[in-house]
Amino acid sequence: IQLESELRAATNEGQFVPYYQPKFALDTGMITGFEALVRWQHPTRGLLKPIDFIDAIISHKLSLELFSQMAVQIAEQLTIWQGLGFDQHICINADAAEFSNPDFFDLVSNLLIEHDVAANQLHIEVTESSLIQRHANVKKQLNLLKKLGICLALDDFGTGYASLSYLQEYPFDFIKIDKSFISKITDDRTQRAIVKAILDLAEALDMQVIAEGIENEQQRDLLLSMGCQYGQGYWFGKPMTAEQATQMLTQQH
Ligand code: G
Ligand code: G
Ligand code: NA
Ligand code: MN
């Protein structure tokens, strides 16, 4: 359990760092971008994962501070990669607590201008569960971000409620199939049928699909044969430091 003061210190002293998990084109194996996942470099307890502190961040209303700290580091990373000739995008996670803040859109658009980052280099990933809360501002902010040119992804697809109506209601470019559907895809007909249905739906709606949690080659091969374009998972790469991500990009070029 974190004290609020500990969280504030983390926010003020820049203890939150993005780790980067690569996303791949399933056919070529090339990296198409990275998902940024927050880690807390805690002064005494080591590297902490979101599960250890995200709820506390939300309840202490520090979501926008966390987002802002992540976003600045991500913009700087995009600029570094641009300089090295790596044309990548980075996807940042955000939840309803962030979208519902009226300052969220200005924060994002100012960030792009200040760091001279193209809007299409930044993707934003939203969980289904955060849409369920139906904050009044969420839809408005998502539409503004989309207008700005930012790609939007619906995360953990299939695990929430009323997910089909969300596809119609919000301007998503990508659907991320939750890893719970991928884990048994090679030996469970039902899971396979669900994934197939999601792929068909996405195609009909002109959306692209990213399969999460790919842990072996069999899963990759099957998803590819089913027409899935993009993937993410331990088989391709675990969340890693910026230096490791840069190394991975260097090796592929
Ligand atoms: O790595 P993993 O334990 O890395 O991430 C667990 C969860 O934490 C994911 O579901 C992801 O959506 C969430 N998460 C990761 N980074 C961030 C972040 O920067 N902001 C928010 N709001 N959620 C995040
Ligand atoms: O909610 P979100 O999907 O953003 O969270 C992603 C979470 O899944 C992170 O905690 C990340 O570390 C984890 N993850 C990423 N790839 C894999 C994988 O191949 N297998 C498993 N079990 N977890 C993964
Ligand atoms: Na995510
Ligand atoms: Mn996810």
How would you characterize the overall build of this protein?
With 253 residues, this protein is of the alpha/beta class. It has a single domain, classed as EAL domain (TIM Barrel, Alpha-Beta Barrel), CATH 3.20.20.450. The chain is 46% helix and 22% strand. It has 12 helices and 9 strands. The chain has an 8-stranded mixed beta barrel with strand order 1-2-4-5-6-7-8-9, surrounded by 4 helices. Helix 3 (63-83) runs parallel beside helix 5 and helix 5 (104-115) packs parallel to helix 7 (136-148). The protein is globular and about 50 Å long. 36% of the residues are buried. Bound molecules: guanosine-5'-monophosphate (G) (2 copies), sodium ion and manganese (II) ion. Residues 93, 125, 155 line the site of sodium ion (NA).
- What is the general shape? globular
The tally of structural domains comes to: 1
CATH superfamily (homologous) name = EAL domain
Which ligands appear in the coordinates?
Answer: guanosine-5'-monophosphate, sodium ion, manganese (II) ion
With strands numbered from the N-terminus, the spatial order across the biggest sheet is 1-2-4-5-6-7-8-9
Query: Could you tell me the mean pLDDT?
Result: 93
CATH architecture: Alpha-Beta Barrel
Write the layout of secondary structure elements.
Layout (H helix, E strand, L loop, with lengths): L3 H9 L3 E10 L5 E12 L3 E3 L5 H6 L3 H21 L5 E6 L1 H4 L4 H12 L6 E6 H5 L3 H13 L2 E7 L5 H7 L4 E4 L1 H4 L6 H16 L3 E4 L5 H9 L4 E3 L9 H11 L1
Parallel strand pairs: 2-4, 4-5, 5-6, 6-7, 7-8, 8-9
Antiparallel strand pairs: 1-2, 1-9, 2-3
Helix pairs in contact: 3-5, 5-7
One guanosine-5'-monophosphate binds next to strand 6.
